[in-house]
Amino acid sequence: MLTINLKLFLTDVNEAIVFDPYSKELAFCQPQESAQANEMLLDYLNRFFYVKVNGKLVDLQIKHKKLSGEGDNTALWVYFEYQQPPPLASLEIKNAVFTDLFFDQNNIVYVHARGESKSLMLNKKTAVHQLTF
Fold first, then answer.
1. Cis omega before residue 87 (within 30°)?
2. Residue ranges per domain, the chain?
3. Under a CB-based contact definition with an 8 Å cutoff, are residues 82 and 58 in contact?
4. What is the tens place of the pLDDT at every residue in 82-101?
């Protein structure tokens, strides 16, 4: 099982999708969440984020979401799962999320696989990293 968790600041998500950081239009994780919220979020993420396992692109589907924090520090956590049949030989990750908004955006990626942990810093210039096991 491959699990992928993204922590995205809600103001940045709103800025990226509806061009208003304080918009209530999508209302993520609220009772009045927009019916298009997940679709719009995935449309954005699929342009700037992907995972390839053993050279094959993973079809990311949102398993669930939650909010944490408050005010400008409110984060939208997005959880994905992928049933990966063994063996895991390679993992390629692209994370250029929000690099279209912020020229100095850095995205930290933590990979835990086969008893090893690695952290990666991905940005506009270096958006893709490949790991081999």
1. yes
2. 2-132
3. yes
4. 888 788 899 999 999 999 99
